[in-house]
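Annex B. Sample input.
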Amino acid sequence: MEPSVICQSFLGPEKLTQLLESLSTPQVKTVLKKGGLKVKLPGSYTAQQKRRRIWAEKVTSAINGGNQDAASEFLQQWLLNKRRGMLMDYLDQLGVKHNAGETDEGFLSSVASEQARSAAARLLKEYPADEAASYLSYIAYQQKSAIFEQWAPMQALIRSGD
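Annex B, continued. Sample output.
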């Protein structure tokens, strides 16, 4: 599942905007730049809150339009800066060596599918399910694994549309 589809399928536009607004200004600017979106706004937008809202809307629109770079960078920024504990918990459950939730190891191909899914089921119960599903789908995408694509607990979380 591609990053933009992950965002649309599990988070939806409202939650995506909310999560974008939770990121710091430098983090949002990184998402904009990596997505090929303009950071600069007209000088009339002086209030930081208004700028952040407009940037969030811009990124949400790009992701909904299939901008994989913006979606991928959003997921990266959000997971590493706001959900690091969830990443660490999953990797710990699998016995994967990591540095504060980050690893270069392609672990989904080296652990048993049942072990990966069992740890994923636990993650879906312990954290907001839409957020855990986004993480699990994103790591599967990064590692070119289809381990969760037809898995019933993940399929049940896919949004039917807004």
